[in-house]
Amino acid sequence: MNFKEIRQMVNLMNENDIMEIEVEREGTKVKIKKSYAEAQPQVITQQVQPRRDAQQLAQEEDQTKSVAASSNRIEVKSPMVGTFYRAPSPDAAPYVDIGQVIEVGQVLCIVEAMKLMNEIKSEVRGKIVEIPAENTHPVEFGQVLFTVEPV
């Protein structure tokens, strides 16, 4: 499935007030679903998650507890599996840096999934305190991309 076909599905949804569409072809499953709060469609892809052993799960749980313990920090997580990009192009400055105050709706990064560039926008106003995801590296669904301290 290519970008043109996905764009045609999004256009079909917009023209016919369709809220959700799912297509499976050649082992790839694409599900596009509009959020009821927003009129913009979201592309969701399903991929098999790697199996984790007990030690990895314990480490992840410890990391989650330590972040939760640090006052009122908010985690911005990846809404999909894809490749994380901090900037719109390789030679451009990053969208945000540690210590920067961000606004609601501000673009924080891009997660590329199936050749679609998905802008991840802030849902809170705050200061970036951590960027645990690495630029140009794969990210998993639910992986923490940014830690934000509300201001």
Give a quick set of tags describing it.
alpha+beta; globular; OB fold (Dihydrolipoamide Acetyltransferase, E2P); 2 helices; 4-stranded antiparallel β-sheet; 2 domains; 151 residues
What report would you give on this structure?
- This protein is of the alpha+beta class and 151 residues long.
- The protein has 2 domains: 3-45; 71-150, RNA polymerase II/Efflux pump adaptor protein, barrel-sandwich hybrid domain (OB fold (Dihydrolipoamide Acetyltransferase, E2P)), CATH 2.40.50.
- The chain is built from 2 helices and 11 strands, in the order H-E-E-E-H-E-E-E-E-E-E-E-E.
- The strands form 3 sheets. The chain has a 4-stranded antiparallel β-sheet, with no helix packed on it. A 4-stranded antiparallel β-sheet has the order 8-7-5-10, with no helix packed on it.
- The model has no long low-confidence stretch (mean pLDDT 82).
Looking at the structure, the CATH topology of the largest domain is OB fold (Dihydrolipoamide Acetyltransferase, E2P)
Summarize the amount of helix as a percent range: 10-25%
What class do helices, strands and sheet pairing give? alpha+beta
Largest sheet: 4 strands, antiparallel
- Number of alpha- plus pi-helical segments: 2
The count of strands amounts to: 11
Please report the first level of CATH classification, the CATH class of the largest domain. Answer: Mainly Beta
Separation of termini? 43 Å
Computed CA radius of gyration, to the nearest angstrom: 17 Å
What overall geometry do the principal axes of the alpha carbons give? globular
**What's the SSE pattern?**
HEEEHEEEEEEEE
CATH superfamily of the largest domain: RNA polymerase II/Efflux pump adaptor protein, barrel-sandwich hybrid domain
The domain tally reads: 2
